[in-house]
Design brief:
The structure is a homodimer.
Chain A lengths: L6 H4 L5 H15 L6 E2 L11 H14 L15 H12 L11 E4 L2 H7 L10 E5 L4 H8 L6 E2 L4 E2 L2 E5 L17 E5 L11 H14 L2 E5 L25 E6 L12 E4 L5 E2 L2 E2 H12 L5 H10 L2 H27 L4 E3 L5 E5 L6 H12 L1 E2 L1 E2 L10 E5 L4 H13 L1
Parallel strand pairs in A: 1-15, 3-6, 3-7, 7-8, 8-9
Antiparallel strand pairs in A: 2-10, 4-5, 9-10, 11-12, 13-14, 14-17, 16-17
Chain lengths: ~400, ~400
Amino acid sequence: MYKINDNYQKLPGSYLFSTIAKKVNAYSEANPDKKIIRLGIGDVTQPIAPAIIEAMHKAVDEMGHAETFHGYAPDLGYEFLRSAIVKNDYQARGCDITVDEIFVSDGAKSDSGNIQEIFAQNNRIAVCDPVYPVYVDSNVMAGRTGTYDPETEMWSDVIYMPCTMENNFVPEFPKETPDIIYLCLPNNPTGTTITKDQLQGWVDYANKNKAVIIYDAAYEAYISEENVAHSIYECEGAKTCAIELKSFSKNAGFTGVRLGYTVVPKELKCGEVSLNAMWARRHGTKFNGAPYIVQRAGEAVYSEAGKTQLKEQVAYYMKNAKAIKQGLRDAGYTVFGGVNAPYIWLKTPGEMTSWEFFDDLLARANVVGTPGSGFGPSGEGYFRLTAFGSYENTLAALERIKML
Amino acid sequence: MYKINDNYQKLPGSYLFSTIAKKVNAYSEANPDKKIIRLGIGDVTQPIAPAIIEAMHKAVDEMGHAETFHGYAPDLGYEFLRSAIVKNDYQARGCDITVDEIFVSDGAKSDSGNIQEIFAQNNRIAVCDPVYPVYVDSNVMAGRTGTYDPETEMWSDVIYMPCTMENNFVPEFPKETPDIIYLCLPNNPTGTTITKDQLQGWVDYANKNKAVIIYDAAYEAYISEENVAHSIYECEGAKTCAIELKSFSKNAGFTGVRLGYTVVPKELKCGEVSLNAMWARRHGTKFNGAPYIVQRAGEAVYSEAGKTQLKEQVAYYMKNAKAIKQGLRDAGYTVFGGVNAPYIWLKTPGEMTSWEFFDDLLARANVVGTPGSGFGPSGEGYFRLTAFGSYENTLAALERIKML
């Protein structure tokens, strides 16, 4: 008789954004006349840039002719895309990363969910709290997190690194030594980040403790300050301790196009075993490449026209971020983020919990945000708004919030 | 100190098709003047059908305008695609499958590699031998297969169901009772299949023994005989014991477009636990949907024009299959398959092993095939050729093989 993976049964409730979608749909059906503004899920709204649209049309045409048709992609991704990534995202920043260290995928969500598979079950993971829920959830599914305490909303075997107002949202080295450290910087959801020196501290800590860092740089394109690293490989020694995850979703609006990549340096070894070889094996066995059309779209991100157009797109969202931050401040809220990230992180007013504020905002302002507690226990009492709406909707949402 | 998943170290050698690619590249570099014909990897060569190209262009245009832009897709896939699947692949065949039982993915390789995650580690799996290597390899990575014996090339905890000339390539109920049964029908690599009555026998067996069947129907479009099921849900009782995997790679040439789906019926339950809910949770946590453009391409597969064009495409490949089968027979080979599948399965001549025949064929005829032993120990002494080449190349390859 077959048995299920009962770690799944340990997961409390459903995935955060599925829950939000259900709540919004229910409200919407009950109140069909209300115009809801969504600043909840981190989904972009601006159309794909013209240079990328052009590249996709060209690739679609190629697929329609036998001489230019493309079947299965190379295991790690097309050379044209991996070269563009290496040149623009690494060599241009002085990082010595090579083409065979780049693994093209269908997005950073898949990679951040799957990367834990190449590690043993008995590793202790450490996560910033609050943070993107996939890190913990995927480790729960793998049986790596112990038991869940509904009271504290914490897992017995997860090391939480609280990031709150009290420590300026900067994680501190934990008391217990972790084996795998997830860092998402700029952070989702707090929108804050750390300096390059502080990141160097984490690299040194990982090397000293023989821990591995899973570095999620999905929001790298939104960094505006000088002393912030765009890649962990800007830090010395990172190649022996860090895996970097990158997404095209936020810098190029690819949430519905689906493309990402993971960097696993060849120097990253556990004893004699190369993690690069392990991830290559995982890719070769359980994945069949990102679509050719999408990989060509990714290449166009790095074209001169693409770069110019995407710089404007990022600036558009950051204008929203600025407007939200200022607007909320004017309305008396305590706000963070929005400088190096498209997320605004606010303290819920009074004694309201995150979900209470979510319900209130949905019912009275018809604005959807994301409850901070959905990102971890230390997110309780906070709330996330995204800058990914249209400028008009963003201003309209602010007007409604100010009226509360 | 972090530890790796050492199940990966148990995997012998690299993934079959990576090994073949390396061998062919090495030969090609050493013999740049030789024109190699590839009938090895099951990759298609015909361009994407016009109706699908048109749909993709339209979807690319939509992505370029704010009003029609699409961000994150719904967790399980777009309703328009899931409805088309239900209507054409199930309702039209009298199978009572509903939209919320369909999970759209980036392809059947991902799904067949990932589906084992929702099961406990201590399940015994049974596989046809030979078969598509991903079933066993993904279970090795999960630590479900015991130890490997290099002598027999078998895993201690895997139940092998030999499919050879002696039993007409039809798997028999194993002596030990399995928990999870992988069936790929029509079979890759043997190209053979079983009757609907025989499949009903497997469904009854699974229900009686509380086993679950992972049914890979990737080659369903190539079925030409009357009494063969196109879906396992044509059998009575399949909804309480079977998960079905489907691919668009072979029926629509999507190997480089990437689209597939999995059916997990709501009636499939382990005690009180719904496997449909588990797979939904996995999808929601570790996957972010297939690209919008690709899902629109999938929809076009079911349009009237799409259906007509793809019927021609399948016929084109089956004409190749017929030519290969007849040509090899004329040359004195013992051949199977090619009637309900695009694969020809042949007995290697004399006492040659599969890899010896591979090397010989590459060196003397410059034709690439796939060694049968790469699909499992009972594949030793057999060899797979695919009908996915162009007609011209297929005939040219046959001429060369006949000259050996």
